[in-house]
Each structure stands twice: as structure tokens, then as C-alpha cells.
Amino acid sequence: MTPHDALSGVPAEPGVPKPDPVLVVDGVCKDFGGVRAVDVEHLEVQRGVITALIGPNGAGKSSLFNVLTGFARADAGHWTFDGRGAAGLPAHRLALRGMVRTFQLTRVLPRLTVLENMTIAATGQRGERFLPAFLRPAWRRQERDIERRADELLERFRLADTRDDYAGYLSGGQRKLLEVARALMVDPALVLLDEPMAGVNPALRQNLLAHIARCAIPATRCCSSSTTWTW
Amino acid sequence: MRHLMVLLLLVVAALLTPSAAAAAQDGEAVGGTLRGPDGEPVAGVTIRVERAGQEIATATSGPDGRWRAAVPAPGDYDVTLDTGTLPDALTLREPDAATLRAVTIRPGQQRTVLFPIVSAADPAPGGAPGLPPAPSGPGSAAVLAQLTLAGIKFGAIIAITAIGLSLIFGTTHLINFAHGELVTIGAMAAFFLNAATIGPGWDLIPSALVAIAIGALVGAVLERALWRPLRIRGTGRIQLFIISIGLSLLLRHLLLVIFGSRPRPYTDYVIQRAVVIGPIAITPRDLVITVLSIVVLVAVGLMLLRTRIGKAMRAVSDDRELAEASGVDAARVDLYVWALGGGLAALGGVLFGLSEVVSWDMGFRLLLLMFAAVILGGLGSAFGAMVGGLVVGLIAQLSTAWFPVELQNAWALGLLILVLLVRPQGVFGRAERIG
Amino acid sequence: MDVIAILADATRSALGPVAALYALAAIGLNIHFGYTGLLNFGQVAFMLVGAYGVAVPVAVYGGPLWLGVLVGLALAVVLALLLGVPTLRLRADYLAIATIAAGEVLRIVFNAGFAQPVTGGVFGLSQFAGPFYAANPVPPGAYGLGPLVFGNRDVWVMIVGWGAVALATVGVFLLVRSPWGRVLRGVREDEDAVRSIGKNVFGYKMQSLVLGGVLGGAGGILLAVDAQAVTPNTFNPVVTFYLYTLVILGGAGTVLGPVLGSVVFWFLLSFADSALRQAIGAGYIPPQVIDPADVGALRFALVGLGLMLLLVFRPAGILGNRAEMRLGAGGSGVRRRRLPRATRKPVEGASR
Lengths: 231, 435, 352
Known about the structure:
The complex is a heterotrimer.
Chain A (H helix, E strand, L loop, with lengths): L20 E12 L2 E12 L4 E3 L7 H8 L7 E6 L2 E2 L5 H6 L2 E3 L12 H6 L10 H4 L2 H21 L15 H14 L4 E5 L7 H15 L5 E5 L5
Parallel strand pairs in A: 3-8, 6-7, 7-8
Antiparallel strand pairs in A: 1-2, 1-4, 4-5
Chain B lengths: L1 H15 L12 E5 L12 E6 L2 E7 L5 E5 L4 E7 L8 E3 L6 E7 L4 E3 L4 E3 L20 H33 L6 H16 L9 H30 L3 H23 L15 E3 L2 E3 L1 H23 L1 H11 L1 H6 L4 H26 L6 H16 L4 H17 L9 H15 L13
Helix pairs in contact in B: 1-4, 2-6, 2-7, 2-9, 2-10, 2-11, 3-4, 3-5, 3-9, 3-10, 4-9, 6-7, 6-9, 7-9, 10-11, 10-12, 11-12
Chain C lengths: L2 H13 L1 H20 L6 H18 L4 H23 L4 H20 L4 H4 L5 E2 L3 H5 L7 E4 L2 E4 H25 L2 H11 L1 H6 L4 H27 L1 E2 L6 H14 L6 H25 L13 H19 L8 H5 L26
Antiparallel strand pairs in C: 1-4, 2-3
Helix pairs in contact in C: 1-13, 2-8, 2-9, 2-11, 2-12, 2-13, 3-4, 3-5, 3-11, 4-11, 8-11, 9-11, 12-13, 12-14, 13-14
């Protein structure tokens, strides 16, 4: 049974309860100077499934993402991630708990190499604490493991050739791929892709889509994305 | 590189300019002119400046009776005339007034103090113009009213200079650290025309008008010869900011070489008798500065609201791409904004120089207060800068009712930090979009 | 004109105690600006608290010098925490204005009459570095080559100063090659992206501010000890501008950049100063054109001009990587030809 079959008995209507939700949102509102940008009564996102959030420009898709991932403060409402309350937590905490986002305008780290863009995203690094950072032996082995994992992902996303280039020299499509690959380095349970197809050349779209589908199924991860896909 | 050429020309011009500068020093000083009963200057009299019992400086009156003692920082000082050095025929009108206690010197101020001197044979008050009775602790409300007026004057000057700073940020996203030097250039241009020995010695009003034109021209030239080419090159925002710091250092010290380190006043409207209106005493000069500043602020406001170019400035400041797409020539607006900013800065410089004194670092001393005003009002908003300027001026002046005068600018800067703490994007600023 | 004397003057200041203490403070600033992207324009404030931290306990309260050094470093940590909590959430340019304002507030307060019992007010403090010089192991005499000589006092300060610089440089070398340094550089590039992958950006910025601030404080301590006196007006914002100039000159975001920058900066500054004075003295430049008293001011003007030219023509500095620079927060962008990212329309949206 693939994860998609779990949704077979679920009616296709907004806010419907799902059998195994990873994200449950209740009554989330966000105002910008009197304009209500986000007003979500109830939303559930099924684990291990690609869920698309669709709507016209200005519908508040990105704003909802910002609120859910801790990049913006909600004016009202609460939501749980993986069964635990997630409202009001800072963005990095939510990421460490497994909810990782990407950005509509791709955000790679231009003056870091592609490999560094990947390795920086690994969690629980001993060498990221101040004092152990001085002692290379304290983190060298872990670093090697992280690099191996990063190389595997780069291979999978066909970025291995660019491994040692500055990320700032990548093309727009490659940057998108790198950002998705970087999100996977965090070892997430849920990846929120904000407009993953925006600005990507149509020929590359199927390629990117295949990557997203491939990484969602085997790892039973769920990618939700805010977009107006037409496929 | 055209802008490079301009810079080199500036440097060469500075190197060729005859100068009379002494070593760099800060602006604050106390001074005055000693005159005997018949108005004749009294030379060779020693005056000591002390603080907390420690001697800070001494000065001796020159042949014209003038004396000046620089002090290291604003604050309260005791100024003592050494009666032993007075000519035998002369004495102080009030013998116990040889020491003026707690003379307050504000930041950047050239404080003038008076020692009434009479003939020793005639110690009773004679025909000499005397010192007004020592301030006998006026009521707190009167003090506050006086300080409020001073705050409005100071705030309006800050506001006039800050409008340009804010508009320049709004249209070109440059934090112009060299804006203070535009203020100084304006004040100095007017000084050259009005008071310099080699200048034409015009009245201050035409001098000020020419100074405003010069300020506008300098602003426009900077935009076209330096900032616009750099923007076209794609120089980043942080780099532009640091370049403006370099420009500020360069201009300021060239002005120091040209003007000299000694602060000097304009020749007109310097010594005036205060008019007493109710609890407030104000010189006609300060009254004119205050009223004129407010008139200028209103006029600029109307210009921004009503005229075509004013609307275009606000449009570009609000959303450059959208304004351009709507047919606004953004490059021309940039130029006008710089000219307007430069002209207003020059006017502010003349008013600041008139209300205090002209010195090489007057603009730099004003700069952080301008930033406080602009941030308070929200970077990019001209009206915000006006309100912010008035608030900063009032806080600086009113704080001296309760706290030491040397801290007056610290309160304004503290407010700046506080505002950023509460609203990181400024009071009226907008947050940037994420993602 | 005595070219040898000019070169000796320039070399003396390039290697002397002042260059060492500026290098130390600049290493700190490089951690802020070069590695973390924090536009800290209040570095001079860290030097101020370092200098007064060492001066006040010794000169006013009669404590031992080592205690003063500890107090100086501790005060730098405290200042970093106080300054960081409100300002580290700010956008880069706001941060610059807030930090420069904080530095000015400190200078004004230390100058104030009411602070005089502790800080000495405008007179400052002196006579606190005696034990340091008493411990000087260098025998009295002059050391050097030909016209380039240092007294034993200077040599002792230089040993300690450059020793501290070497130590700090090795520390920075180890740190920036670690995952910790990688996060710092990530924050410099895009803090939201780094936040989105689970890093506590505020925490890293604070660590950076504290570390760089402590180095600034150490520079201030060295300044106080070298001058044997401190006055608040030494610590005006221009010192921070100098530090930026030499960090960018050497190469921001490089390990040796600030050290090389300091040496080159002081060499050039002193060279210009000495050459101008000699030229005036020898009559090559008539005093009507440049008064000897103006040389000091012209020196500042040259720093300003140099800073501008550097950022326009060589923003990567001496050691920086030009290819890397082009990608930076707005080098001559290949991709973004017209307006840099920062000028993108600020849309109403999520606050940080």
C-alpha cells in the first residue's frame, strides 16, 4: 500500500480530516495593516503524501507558509506538527523538529560552495558549538559522514559536478534543486516548497517534479507546496 | 571614470587652497569681549575656566578686548576673571561677580559671557551697559516653555536637514553618511560670502540664498558624478554606505583644511537683545530661525503633496519599479531629490550656523541626530523625518531641564536605539517580505 | 627630503604598538563584518569599555592590573550582550546606525561631569599601567636597524600586542574552518535561509558579537596600556571607520586580512604624514599651500578617499577572492545588472 492509498476513502473537500495528519492547522489568521492575508479555519496535511496548496496571486499561500514555519507571527490560531503544538515556536526550532521550508525567491548561500550549502544544513553537528569548533578531532568524523550524505544527495539531484563551485554561480534551476536538496539534508518529516516551479524553465519542470515525487515516496516524506501547478 | 576625476579635482583643489588651520579641536568654547566704562577694549586680563576645581583652560584678552578659551567637552564650567590682572584704574562692577559659576556650555556652543567693568574710582553702577540680573531661578514652567521653544528651533533645523537624508534613502536606498557635510558646505558657503575676510561681505540673506543654490548643486553633482555611476555598476547597498562614510571623511577634513578648526560666527544678527514674551525670552534672530524653519517645512510638505515632481518623488520612494512602469523618470527624480536634499541641508546649515556658530564638523555633529529623526519617522518618509526631527530636537533640549546638558544628545540617540528595539523597521517603516 | 627617515617612520608605525592594537580590534570587526555580515559601527565602544575596564579598577580603586584586564574583557562581553539583544534583529543598515549611536552615547556619558569620579570625565585617567612596564623583561636600550629603532618599552608592548594578534589569528583560523564558522558565513549570506535549516541565527550572531567585541576590548586594553592614559574623546566614531578601512583594505572575510590591513594602513598613513611634513619642511611644498598643521586633517581626508577608491575598484581588498566578491551582497553583480537585491520592492509581509 502506497501512502496515497491511505487517502482513498477521504472525501475531496476543504478542511476534511485525514487518517494520519502530520500537520493540523486550526483558525490561523494573519493581518497586514487591516487586510486579512491568511484566514484558515481548518487544514490537515497527510503524512507521506504530496499535498498542493493552490490559489491565485495574493491568496496568502506564502503568508500561510511564513506563519506555519515560524517566519511570521500569527495573529490568531494554533497548529500542531507531528502531534505537538507548533504555534509561536521560532523558525529554527520548527526546522529542527522536521518542518523545513524553501523560499519562493530561491535562497542559496552564494559565497559558500555547493557542498557547503549542503553540509551546513545537517543537524546536530558537534562542530557547530563554539568551543568544540576549535578542536578539529572532535568533529572530523561526523563531518566526513555529513559530506558523504551530502554527496549522495548531490548525485541524486545531478549537482555533483558543481560540488566545489560557489553556489552563486549556479543557474536558476540548479539553485532550486540545491535548495530542495539542502532541505532534505535537515532530515525533515515535512518539506514546504514555496512556489517550487516559479521561474523554472518549463523543460526543467518535469525534471524537478520527478525529484520531488521521488524523494517524497521512498522516505515517506510529505511535500506540501504552494503553487499554481497545471499538470 | 568621471566620478574619480571629480574626486581627484576635489583633492587637488584642496591642496591648492591657502589655509589657516590650526590643529583639530572640538567646537565648544567660552569667550567674550572685555570693555571698560567707555566701551574701550581692556587687554591683558587673564580669565580662568575651571571644572570641579580643576583648571581647564586660561585665556588672556587681546588688544581688542576679546578672549576665548576652548573647553574639551560640553558641560558646566566656572569662569573666573583674575581681578589682579585688571588695569589699576578699572574694577568689576560687582566684586563678587569675578567668578561666574556653572556656566553651561552646550554641545558645539561658543558661549559668550560678560564681565561688566567700571572705573575703580566709581564703583557704583555707572553708565556702562550692565549684565541683566542673574537668573534668579525662574519657575519650572517658564524653564520648560523656554526649553520647548529652543527644542522647536533645534528640531526644525534637524528636520530641514533630515528630509533630504530620508528622501535620498527612499529613492536610491543609499544611507548617505556624507549628508552632514552638505550641511557644513551650506553653512560655509554662506560664511564665505558673508563674513570671510576674502569674501564679498554680503548681507547674510543673499549669502544664504546663494548657499542654498550651492548646496543643491553639490547634491546634484554628487548624484550624477558619483552615486548614479556606482548604482549603474551594481555596487551593493552596504558598499555604497561605506563609500559614503569615506566621502564624509574626505569632505569633512577638506573643509577643515579650507575653513580651519576655529568656529566662527556670521557677521549679521549675532548680538541681539532678547524680546520677553510672557515667560519666554527670545532674540529676534532665534524667532526668525524658528518661524522660517517651520515655513520651509510646510512649503516642502506642500511641494511633496501638490506638485508634479513632489508626487513623483513620493512615488519613486514608495515603489521605484511601479513608479517607473507608470512613466516616472526615476533617474530625473533621483537628481531632483539630491538637489532638494542638498539645498535643504545647506539652508539647515546656515540656520544652524546662525543659531550657534559655523565650524568644520557642525554637520557631522548633527548627523546622528538626523539619523535619529529619520529612523524615528521611518526611513524614506519625508514627513516622518519632519516629525522625527522635531521630536529629537525637543527631547534634546527638554532633557536639560532635569539632566546634565552634556547628555542632551545622548538622550536623542538613546531614543533612536529604543525605537529600533520596539519597531526594528522604524515607527512608520514597513517590514520586508520573506520568501 | 630624507627618504630613509620617511620609510623608517612608516615602518615604525606599521610594526608598532598602535598597528598591533588596531589589528586586534580589526580581527574582531572582521568576525562581525567579514564573516557574519554584522554591520557593527560601534566597535570603538568595545575598545572604550576595554580601556576603561583596565583603567578604572587600577587608577580609581587601586586594584591590581590583571584584575583590570579581566574587568575590561568582561565589560566587552557585557556590552556585546546589551548591544546585541536590541540590535541583532535589525536589518544591516539599521544595525549600523544603532551601533554607532550606542558608541556615541557611551562616549558622551564617559565624558560627562557626573561620571568624573569614576571615569575622570574629560581628563580621563592615567597612571595605571605601571605593573605592566615593571614586568618588562626587555632590558633598557634601543632595538632596531639603522634609523628604525624602538625603545625597550615599545618592544615589550609590541611583543604582547603582536602575540595577542597571533593568538587571535590562529583562533579565527580554526574557527572559520569549522562547522561553526560555516554557519557564521551562512548567516552573512542569507540569515533566513540559515534559519530555515534549523540554525539559531540570533544565537550565532550573538556569539559572533561577543567574540569580536572581546577582541575589540582587548584592543582597547592594549591602547590604554600603550598610551598609559585614556580619555573618552580618543574613542570617537572615526576609530571605527579606520577599522573598517583596514579590514576592507586587507580583505574582509579573510583570516589574515585585518592584520595585513593594519600593517599596510599604518605604513601608508605614516608615510603620507611623514612625506608631507618633510616636503613642507624642505620647502618643496610652500607653507601657504599646505600648512604643517593641516597635515593631520589631510591624513584623514586621504583615509576617506582611500576607503572610497578601495570599495569602488577593489572591494575584495588585498587578500580577498575577487570571484567570491563578485557574488557578494552586491559586488559588480553579473546577474543583477541594474539594482541590487536590497532595492527590491519592500512588500508588506512577514516581519522577522
